Amino acid sequence: MLECRTGQGFLLAVLMLAGCAAPPRSAPVPVVPTPVATPGVVYEVTGSDVTVRVYRDGPLASLGHNHVIASTGLSGRFIVREPLPASSFELELPLASLTVDEPARRASAGADFPGELAAADRESTRRNMLGPGLLAADRFPVIRAHSHSIEPRGKALEVTMRVDIAGAPRMLVVPAELEREADILEAHGRFTVSHAELGLVPFSIAFGALRVREDIDIEFRVSARRLVEGP
Q: 10-residue block means of pLDDT along the chain (231 residues)?
């Protein structure tokens, strides 16, 4: 190992001292503080409208009907924070609140949903939907949704949520738009999801000759009001 000692010549000593000097230290990397989310503003759901459109399929599809399933029974809370991706929500939808083929709903759903269906047909469809082969409402009477992440995508949001349906958790990515005015918050959007993504098997009869199509169209609108803290 090279050691630094006093040399005979001044120049030699200087050169050797320079050789034994500690290497220069790099400048410290500045620490960027992580943004801290605000405590958040709590909004409680005061109104909702969820519409689900399911379609007939199979070789005997002409013998079946497309259906409009709806609910105004959504409840829950939003917590809005800054920055917005730190926000969250928890929502619940009681299966008992689901309706099937209400005349006004079918009339406004478009050409794929012609005519009014008999009450007996509507009840039969609802019974099959809530039965053990699909939503198993007796065992799992509520669908629950919890936010996982909320990411801005231009003027809209990409919401990843965990949905607990028929006893199984599923992760869904849903587009949504959010509007806030004074103490009112509104979220709305529409998307298509498959039965498989929800962990469900479409209802079918006659060995699949008449069945429900795999894809489902969902549209939602949720209103919430800011909770006012007490004194």
A: 42 37 46 61 97 96 95 97 95 98 96 95 95 95 98 94 96 96 95 95 90 96 86 44
Nearest to residue 186, comparing CAs of 225, 217, 150, 146?
A: 225
Report pLDDT for 8: 44
Domain 39-226 - what CATH class? mainly beta
| Domain boundaries of the chain, sorted by first residue | 39-226
The per-residue pLDDT for 39 is 79
Q: What tokens were used for 110? A: 């478009």
Helices of type H across the chain: 10-20, 103-108, 119-130
The two structure tokens encoding residue 98: 């689901």
pLDDT score for 155 = 87
Report yes or no: 95 and 137 within 8 Å, Cβ to Cβ: yes
Kindly give the residue spans of alpha helices, DSSP state H, lying in 21-155.
103-108, 119-130
Chain centre to alpha carbon of residue 216: 16
Q: Cα separations (Å) of 45 from 76, 89, 226?
A: 6, 10, 9
The Cα–Cα gap between 106 and 213 comes to 18
pTM of the predicted model as reported, rounded to 2 decimal places = 0.80
Read out DSSP for 46-107? EEEEEEEEE-EESTTGGGS--EEEEE---EEEEEE-SSGGG-EEEEEEEGGG-EE--HHHHH
Do 135 and 166 contact (CB within 8 A), yes or no?
A: yes
Q: For residue 60, what is the DSSP state? A: T
- Distance separating alpha carbons of residues 140 and 165, to the nearest angstrom: 8
